[in-house]
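Handout, page 2. Input:
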Amino acid sequence: MLQVKIFEAEHEEDLEEAVNEFLAELQQSKFVEIQYQVSIAADEETEDYESLYSFSAMILYKK
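Output:
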């Protein structure tokens, strides 16, 4: 059976750390794919429209 694990972080280093921790525990034969995405939005409540980042990854693996 296929499963997904989704990670999200405001900083790419935090995402990298979380994904690496998960992969370290996953048997290589169970790994299928990783999908990565970055989203950027402007915070209209700040004077300078501060950029908000969301880094996410989805790991597809076999259970």
